[in-house]
Amino acid sequence: MSSRAPMTFARALFSALAWAAQPLLRRKLRRRAVAEPGYGVAVPERFGHYQPFDLGRDGRGQWVWIHSVSLGETRAAAILIKALRERLPGMRLLMTHSTATGRQEGAKLLQQGDVQVWLPWDTLGATKRFIHQFRPAVGVLMETEIWPNLIAACANAGVGLALANARLNEKSEAGALKIKPLSRPAYQALAAVWAQTLDDARRLRNVGAKVNGVLGNLKFDVQPDVAQMQQAAQWRTALPKPVVLFASSREGEEVMFIAALKALGQQAAAVQWLIVPRHPQRFDEVAQLLVDAGFAVSRRSQWQEVPAVPDEAIWLGDSLGEMPLYYGLSSAALMGGSFAPLGGQNLIESLACGCPVLLGPHTFNFSQASLEAVQAGAALRVADMDSALHSALALVANPERLNAAQQSASEMMLANRGAAAATAQAIQGLMNTPK
User: Fold this and answer.
1) Can you give the CATH number for the domain in which 48 is found?
2) For residue 118, is it left (φ>0), alpha (ψ between -120 and 50) or beta?
3) CATH of the domain at 285
4) Which phi and psi (to 5°) does residue 383 adopt?
5) CA neighbor of 103 nearest in space, from 94, 92, 95
6) Which one, out of 84, 165, 234, 275, has a CA that is 20 to 30 A from the CA of 15?
7) Which pTM does this prediction carry?
8) Would you say residue 125 lies in a domain?
9) Are 183 and 274 part of one and the same domain?
10) Tell me, what's the pLDDT at 57?
């Protein structure tokens, strides 16, 4: 277990700045709520003011607390939560988030007796109120979240707080080292750190974390939604041509995609193009970009029993929680975030659905998984968007090569499973550690 976390000068300065920034945070939340109403929900929770909840007969919360900041982390948390419920029947789940999409996705994971709230802003008062109110039996931060005051509040209250599915890329490592007086004590105060890869473990140790194990990536244990995959299979057999998906596109990448698509000319008509923006608040923006470029747009939200297939239309996946449907429909996927210097989005979900991936040059968020996928033949690395579209067309036009890539995706998923069970076991062990 972690020991008490002393107040350092760096954390005292950070705490003062965090306290002073609260009016700015309130203003930011009001602005975000205009486009995304979820940011206007339960705002007092952001500052450590929560409704009363039953703490149990012994006065200590029985919750397993899991913090997943946004959508991607919440999807990874879903895999872990399933394994925890199998290992800890009757578990009470406390979920916290920082984004509206994370909270919306997390609501699907709740059962009777569970609680979902916002993670408090990292001030001394808000974090102390959060821990005092809920008194979780154990806490789990997903992947990358490090908050100095929150970690210190847990250490001082005897709450074992772990960093699970932990990853740290080179850029984040350099950033942590630049603020070493603040970041190092925070990493050191964690009760446990379970890294995804050996490279993540090395970088985490370099910034001060005590790495307790390399357990793999939880996302390899994902099980695609069966109903969505069945629906995709039905639609796919009825389509006149294969589908190529641009998954989780990020701002700026759609412009690259449109330019590359236009450069293809008539070759582009060989497949049905489908684009799914990473952030739902950009659905309308991306639709307008396509219309302005002269393309017809068929939106998922307007489909009835079957996909709409007007000639030369680009499909727009403007729905939440349907990525298995989109991947299942597609013969290949371009991975968003990898064509602009953003580090790439999660390619593992695509591989789990048997959909090979084309990766741009920027995949530092998923460097190990990307490397393994390319080496296995489940993914193809390309230099830019033009190359991605040409490569996608060549892949889907070659059934033998496409089948081999799909088989490689399935084999890679099977070879890397097991992180969920191992992490759930480690969390149970941390809960049983004497306070």
Assistant:
1) 3.40.50.11720
2) beta
3) 3.40.50.2000
4) -80, -30
5) 95
6) 165
7) 0.87
8) yes
9) no
10) 45
